[in-house]
Amino acid sequence: MKNSLLQKYNVPGPRYTSYPTVPYWNESNFNYEIWVETLKKSFIESNSLEGISLYIHLPFCESLCTFCGCNKRITKNHTVENPYIAAVLKEWDLYCAFLEEKPIIKEIHLGGGTPTFFSVQSLENLINGIFSKAEKAPNYEFSFEGHPNNTTREHLQKLYNLGFRRVSFGVQDYSEKVQKAIHREQPFHNVAKVTFWAREIGYTSIGHDIIFGLPFQEVEDVIDTIEKTKSLQPDRLAFYSYAHVPWIKGNGQRGFKDEDIPKDDKKRMLYEIGKKSLFENGYFEIGMDHFALKEDSLYNAFQTGKLHRNFMGYSSSKTQLMIGLGVSSISDSWYSFAQNVKDLEEYYQLLELDKLPFYRGHLLTSEDLIIRKHILNLMCQFETSWGNPDAYFEEIPAILIELEEMEKDGLLVIGKDKITVTEAGKPFVRNICMGFDLLLKRKAPDTQLFSMTI
Length: 454
Description:
Layout: H1 3-9, H2 32-50, E1 52-58, E2 60-61, E3 73-74, H3 81-98, E4 104-112, H4 120-131, E5 135-146, H5 153-161, E6 164-172, H6 176-181, H7 188-201, E7 205-212, H8 219-232, E8 236-241, H9 246-249, H10 264-280, E9 284-286, E10 290-292, H11 297-304, E11 308-310, E12 313-315, E13 322-325, E14 330-332, E15 336-340, H12 344-352, E16 358-363, H13 366-381, E17 383-385, H14 396-408, E18 412-414, E19 418-421, H15 429-434, H16 438-442
Parallel strand pairs: 1-4, 1-13, 2-3, 4-5, 5-6, 6-7, 7-8
Antiparallel strand pairs: 8-10, 9-10, 11-12, 14-15, 15-16, 17-19, 18-19
């Protein structure tokens, strides 16, 4: 990759797990009644046809990883488990009270924090509590994030018995120097152990998360991490760019100096070398930052045009309604978004008042819905079209003029009624999506809100 392109396009930009992105939500036009109304509407339209998704945020961790930007509470006190599970189930009860029939759940994802901070019994109580008022869809897919240092065989077996078939393990990097800098020290042995356990138990999709651009990370570290990873043959990989946003995440990302972080051409070299190694070992690029073997459901979804992206990341199937449970979770009714409060004590207080614990949201306009579809197409299929009148909007000609520069740089091809991202343009897909982001164009942020795109 030419350094000139890196310098040209390495700007702050959204990751587009939603459109509009959270900083551009119109909170003044959103309220409790609007959220409940759009929730009910989406549920009626989709429950019997495709089911719904649940994202459940489990925020507790025993130690702080300094690369992490998630909402978490650091504690070694496991008495916090029962009150939190009870609160999440109370929130689920409040949602079910609004729904006119029993929810059919197609997807569950347990994220965090550290879901495997919780005991096997606590997780069983959580899932059984959810299904005391719901049914599983015929083609359900349940997944969770496991920490290699504290995921036990009992965790894996119990969650498998409860219907979970996909697990992802956070690896980040195997270099001891890098691990020490990010306060995430875990030997290869621990990752190998939980990966083998999951495979023996019968999990059909095992994922590893790797990050490039971490402090002190060198080319040989990325090569070594991927070599070790390929020996375990996970079914899918997330190969993320480290998002250094200390102005948002506070002291958690200030455990090292800015000059310790690989930047620009060096950081991109880490990605290119890692990506080349993944290709050589049978992994295919799926959307942005994700790779999968041909046997994985994510690969099949990409090939058949069914890949979807939401606040949980990439998914092999789409549900119109996604309910987020737990502190800081975001829900998506397709017509609106709602985010729960981030403070744990406030979350408990609102539930005690029998109130859904969200504090902000956004009602999508007709324009938002069209732009959202184009950005989803680009993120999931590396192309989008406006040949259908429903996909056309009046700013298209102006957007195409703006994208001509990217076409000259070989990043995309502009057709009669579509654009296609080239192989060279895939690392710049966030930049291409920004071309469609009308809200970002109309009001550029006064301060840096997003991580760098490259």
